[in-house]
Amino acid sequence: MSGVVEGGWEFVIAAYAVTAAVLGAYAVSVFVRHSAEKSRAAGGEKGP
Amino acid sequence: MARVAHNRTPHALVAAGVALLLAGSYWGLLKAPREIFMGDVQRIMYVHVPTAWNAMLALSFAFVCAVCFLFTNAWKWDNRLEAAMEMGVVLSLLLCTQGAIWAKPTWGVWWDWDPRLTTTAVMVFAFGGILALRAFVDDPVKRAVWSAVACIVAFADVPIVYFSVKWWNSLHQAQSSPQTVSRAFHWPLRINAFGILFLWTGLVALRARVAALRLQSEIHPPVPEQKSAPAGAPVPGGA
What we know:
A: mainly alpha; B: 0% strand
């Protein structure tokens, strides 16, 4: 035991992959909700 | 009725954030030197620490929005509060996940009931609970007032999270600052911090527009002829 962490790239890749997945998924969800609300509001403005 | 703004600034902020995150992550993964004790595992710091800074910043912005709503009764602050709390919870959950991934190779465990980790978990559940509360309250006025008050109460935990490593014996290392982090690691850390900052400000601006549009349809559902709001009543729609 040297007291130095050896290897560990799998943890590094996992951390960056989780970060990309979470931020990417949240960004997509915001864009989707935004465009859905805009379409709904535009439909409502036209009126029956 | 106030109109919801439709400029492209949030999209530009998100694009700038993604570009900075790509550059900072490239630097952190491939260009920055290995740390002498933790080796390559330390490269997790370049996403973990910026996530922590920005989670606290997003929740601090939510606190400011809550205070502003209670003082002004302007709906734009409630829309921003909802958006900032949601972003803060997402970043805090991401922070806990990154922390667990970093803890396993360095501490030997995924989780420990250490003061920093425990207070962060309390923060996630407190703000997550307020978001759940918002989902269950139909009256927009009650929802806005209750969540603003709850946000102010929950925010008490944010400085406790920050100072927990100073106040108590913690397995977690002290706060990362120019004094505690080697100069060789500064740039990827800063670039990713600004990347996440731009990303969340853009997303919060867009998410606040979503909240504003929903509020408009809730308070003034589309009908052929609408009566104007009574004098002094809060006007929905500002993002």
